[in-house]
Amino acid sequence: MSDAHSPEASQTLASRFRKLRYLLVSLAVIVIDQWTKWLVEVHLPHHTTRPVIPGLFNLTHVRNTGVAFGLFASDGTGGGGGWLLTLLGLGALIAVGLYFWYTPSRDRVLLVALALVVGGAVGNLIDRVSSGAVTDFLDVYLGLHHWPSFNVADSAISIGIVLMAIDSFRPRHHHESTAAAPVTE
Length: 185
Fold this sequence. Notes:
Layout: H1 7-19, H2 23-43, E1 49-53, E2 57-64, H3 81-102, H4 108-131, E3 134-142, E4 145-146, H5 152-168, H6 176-179
Antiparallel strand pairs: 1-2, 2-3, 3-4
Helix pairs in contact: 2-4, 3-4, 4-5
């Protein structure tokens, strides 16, 4: 039986609280994402494009009712798909949040990756809940070939996923306590 005041319990609790600092990454993503979307909504009329680097990068104001890169976008008839996407996004956010919570504090790259994904998911979820669509404004292209418009939250999610993939190839070292002989009852 484990005592709540045992050294092991204190160490686990301390480890989880140390992980909370990674949530500052999530908070930074949310703040920067919402601020840049606000700037676009206030200063760039809907469906307007402003070249930044001709032939490579524009700022463009679009509203995405679908998921990443406009997939599953609604046709504007209000068919209820927006609520389904919101619920799926919330479910994914909960799953990533649990993954974050149970990730050991020594897995710093993975924690940063998960914090980026959480921040991006919350940023886009705020838009989806408040207006039914996500503001996208970063338009990267080469000649006539455009990548679908995206935003800071999408960027954070993408970077987080790449970091998670890189981290998955890292060898895992087990602590001595996990290498101990199995407990017999």
